[in-house]
Design goal:
Blueprint: E1 3-10, H1 16-29, E2 35-42, E3 48-50, E4 71-72, E5 93-96, H2 107-114, H3 124-131, H4 133-142, E6 150-154, H5 155-160, H6 162-172, E7 177-181, E8 191-193, H7 196-206, E9 212-217, E10 221-230, E11 235-244, H8 253-257, E12 262-265, H9 272-288, E13 293-302, E14 307-313, H10 323-331, H11 335-353
Parallel strand pairs: 1-2, 1-5
Antiparallel strand pairs: 2-3, 3-4, 6-9, 7-8, 7-9, 10-11, 10-13, 11-12, 13-14
């Protein structure tokens, strides 16, 4: 029997468009001889719309949007019956292709857990901790992973004590520094600051996207990334490197998705010793957050050889041209095989969870 796969995409998030592109790419790569594919579209307003079973690849993202008149409750999702004679409209496994809040942050994962549905990727804890950069960095610090200096503020704290907050940044981090929304990805809302005036503007920008921001020390370093794949025994891909153009301040949203003002080098030119250290740190990060399925781990490597972990992404960009799939392609796992591997990992994790006792 074919696997009944529900693809969950779109979402009430600033990364809605990124998710749509991911869904389009995954659908084009799936083998229809192995999967029955059911699109589940979430509008920007948060409405859930179950689309009809796909009979072929979608031509564009417009083909993956459906009328809000057909919206339904998320609770309409249900586990697919094991009875071959059942006419259940549920799913064998859900593949969340959601980026950012309301999808990558543990909210959808919690719902899927309550419904006892197998799903691809990280669970509630890893997703929520990986989404919140402050919590993530605190966990990494506990795990002994080296990081650049950082501080954080909630909106009310910043607004009530702006002058002292600016002084704290100057004293503890200095300039340049980077301001980021604590709970967002794809470089949305991130700014580089060289002085206090730029800091105030950057903070105002970041607070448009979250009630909490993180400010990090700026370092001159190479940006290296690794793909982690697995559950209890994860494996690490080759290294990749992001190289922005020289006139580019940093690897921002436009460089990633609009202007192409960056290049990916895979595999990155690093020594065997550097790879050994970086890959070990990547797996430590994966395990410290209790991750499963997939993670992309990002690092800084300075000219002096100092390594810092920057962050992990629990639902990295997933088009065939995104870093995570390309890392695994160069490691020997092509895009269709990577998708099938992730579905298998999801089913294995779900099966293990069924062994947990809930009665005494």
């Amino acid at each position: 029997m074919k696997t009944k796969l529900g693809l969950l995409y779109g979402g009430k998030s600033a990364e809605h468009e990124v998710s749509m592109q991911t869904a389009l790419a995954v659908i084009k790569a799936l083998d229809l001889a192995k999967f029955d594919i059911y699109p589940i579209y979430i509008t920007k307003e948060g409405s859930w719309i179950n689309g009809p079973k796909l009979t072929g690849p979608a031509e564009n993202v417009e083909a993956l949007t459906f009328s809000p008149e057909k919206s339904s409750s998320p609770l309409a999702l249900q586990a697919h019956s094991t009875d071959e004679n059942s006419e259940s409209t549920g799913y064998d496994v859900i593949f969340p292709l959601l980026h950012g809040p309301n999808g990558e942050d543990g909210t959808v994962q919690g719902m899927l857990e309550l419904l006892n549905l197998p799903y691809v990727g990280n669970g509630v804890l890893a997703s929520s901790a990986g989404m919140d950069k402050v919590i993530m960095k605190n966990i990494f610090a506990q795990a002994g992973l080296p990081q650049v200096k950082y501080t954080w503020f909630i909106r009310s704290e910043w607004e009530k004590n702006t002058e002292s907050a600016i002084k704290k940044v100057a004293d503890e981090l200095g300039y340049p520094c980077f301001v980021k929304p604590a709970n967002l990805g794809s470089s949305v809302g991130i700014s580089k600051c060289n002085d206090a005036d730029e800091l105030e503007k950057a903070v105002a920008e970041a607070f448009q996207f979250d009630r909490k921001i993180i400010i990090e020390e700026g370092v001159v370093a190479r940006e290296l990334e690794f793909g982690i794949l697995g559950n209890d025994e994860p494996s690490c891909s080759v290294a990749g490197e992001i190289i922005p153009k020289k006139d580019f301040a940093f690897y921002d949203y436009s460089a990633k998705y609009v202007d192409g003002n960056s290049a990916m080098v895979i595999p990155a030119e690093i020594t065997e010793s550097e790879y050994a250290t970086l890959s070990e740190m990547a797996i430590t990060a994966f395990k410290s957050l209790d991750c499963s399925g997939l993670v992309r781990a990002d690092f800084f490597l300075t000219n002096e050889g100092q390594i810092y972990i920057n962050e992990v992404n629990t639902m990295p960009g997933f088009t065939p041209f995104s870093m995570f799939p390309l890392l695994w392609k160069h490691t020997g796992v092509d895009y269709p095989a990577l998708i099938e591997k992730l579905v298998k990992l999801a089913l294995e994790r779900h099966q293990e969870k069924q062994q947990i006792k809930y009665t005494v």
